Amino acid sequence: MANVDAAFGYRPIGAVGSGVNNAATTLYTIGDNYATSIFKGDHVMQASGLVIAGTASGATNLGVFNGCFYIDPTSKKPTWSNYYSQVNVTASGSISGGTTIDAYIYDDPFTLFEAQCDGTIAKTDIGKNTDSVLTTGSTVNGQSKNEIDDSTEATTAGLQVKIIGITKDPENDDASSANANWHIMFNEHVKLGTGITGT
Question: How confident is the model at residue 21 (pLDDT cuts 50, 70, 90)?
Fold first, then answer.
């Protein structure tokens, strides 16, 4: 049966050795007027102590974005958003004036995530590593549309995430078809280093 093609970024499902949905966030900061949007479920990196959007490959992954909180410089009201956007967050088109933008990040390197594949990954690829496919998320609900890459899975260490297993969702568990959902964890992470080889 064909899988449902509806990417959602990296969705936390638990942690290695623990129950489902046992995942917590840590508070970090996004720089004022940062120019790149970050959506709920996007993986992020860190530069100069600040959260930045993740790239399709790279070893400095910090974790996964779960929304942000800030004081709107126009209305002066506390504001929560599922996604960060310099353009859409305020009427004036920017967050400025020294406003602190609190970012909530799933940063435990042993957190397990579920993510959709952009193509087809075989069950024999479980244990291998792969990179990300970046797509602009939804400005309606703030949800990421990033996926994992079906063309880069390999046993080499220098890839972002490790494929742990296939989803238990019956609508997206057909490994013989495109867009199946997979359980993954970071292979390259700021707390782990540049990753280990796959199996």
Answer: low
User: Which tens digit of pLDDT belongs to each residue from 138-180?
Assistant: 999 999 999 999 999 999 999 999 999 999 999 999 999 999 9
pTM above 0.85, yes or no: yes
For the chain, counts of helices (H) and of strands (E): 0, 13
Cβ neighbours of 103 (radius 10 Å):
24
- Phi, psi dihedrals of residue 124, rounded to the nearest 5°: -70, -10
Residue type, 191: K
Q: Which of 41, 5, 63, 62 is nearest to 146 (CA)?
A: 41
**CA–CA separation, 157 and 129 (whole Å):** 7
* Tokens encoding 4: 């449902």
What's residue 92's pLDDT?
43
Nearest to 173 by CA among 3, 21, 49: 3
Q: How many whole angstroms separate alpha carbon 163 and alpha carbon 182?
A: 7
Report the C-alpha gap between 116 and 133 in whole angstroms: 10
Going by C-alpha positions, the residue among 13, 21, 43, 9 that lies closest to residue 166 is 13
